[in-house]
Amino acid sequence: MKDKKALLIAFGVALFALMMVFSYISGREKELLDLATPIKVVVALKDIPLGTRLDDTYIEEKIIPKKYVQPGAAGNLTDIADRFVSIPILKNTQILESMLMSAETASIATRVPKDMRAFTSPATEVTAVAGLVQPGDYVDVMATFEVGSYEQGRSKSEDTFTKTILENILVLAVNRISSKAEGAGAEASKEQSAPGSLFRKSQPVESGNILRTLTLALKPDDVQRMNLAQEIGSISVSLRSRWDTGKVMSLPQLKARDFLGIEKTVIPKSAPAWIDIQGASQKSRY
């Protein structure tokens, strides 16, 4: 009887030990399989100098075991294409987010699309959608001109017309803010600097609510058109919808006489009778 009881105890202990060993082996197997899972990362094809813009001549996708993937490694080419590196990178090194320039630290030149130019034009809240245009938006550019003749050394306006000279144009910067993150940061700084704020700073924050300029991404020949248009006429922009397909409509120019349906000479509106100036800033002309 005692032998039978001892046998049962030994059998139970052996079964428990077997279950523990099986559990350990299963856990290790799962862990090893997880570490061996193939993961796609982006690595350097060759040594990459500081400041290089990444493209498929510098980087490639590679499959490696999960255990060798470094924290923050890029997973595919599209995530980092056209980004600029902030440190030199050696061949076969995994590309990490910390190796790339952030949108806030990269210069405006890094955000200008290939074969395009950055061009700055004066703007006001009246001519630029109440100052609601933000970096990354797309706009159409309109120019308004007066035409006429000279008589006895004086100009005589005979008609006014508006023409959409550029369509679907990328806004690179508004004033000196070139990203929405910078704009949000400026607004937060202004809020923290408000009277009575616990986080009030001693140094004044540069005002960002007065629209002065828009910087646009233009083709080289469009730069010439834009420069000429703002020298001989007035410029306004219209904001495109985020759901816009980017279709170019090529609208014809609109003459004041055709718009009004008259044959008489159109007399442009006179200059404003007053200008509201607050400090060094012109607040409104209308």
Provide structural commentary:
This protein has five helices and ten strands, in the order H-E-E-H-E-E-E-H-E-H-E-E-H-E-E. The protein is of the alpha+beta class. It has two domains: 62 residues, Antifreeze-like/N-acetylneuraminic acid synthase C-terminal domain (Type Iii Antifreeze Protein Isoform Hplc 12, Alpha-Beta Complex), CATH 3.90.1210.10; 163 residues, no CATH class. Strands 3, 4, 5, 6, 7 and 8 form a six-stranded antiparallel beta sheet that branches. The longest helix is centred in the first third of the chain and has 34 residues. It starts with a helix and ends with a strand. 14% of the residues are buried.
The gist of it:
With 286 residues, this protein is an alpha+beta fold.
Q: Give the helix proportion (percent range).
A: 10-25%
Describe the global form: elongated
* Beta fraction: 25-35%
Written as H for each helix and E for each strand, in order along the chain, the element string is HEEHEEEHEHEEHEE
Q: Could you tell me the radius of gyration in angstroms? A: 32 Å
List the helices and strands and how they pair.
Blueprint: H1 2-35, E1 38-44, E2 59-65, H2 77-80, E3 117-122, E4 138-151, E5 154-174, H3 180-192, E6 213-218, H4 220-232, E7 234-239, E8 254-255, H5 256-260, E9 276-278, E10 281-284
Antiparallel strand pairs: 1-2, 3-6, 4-5, 4-7, 5-6, 5-8, 9-10
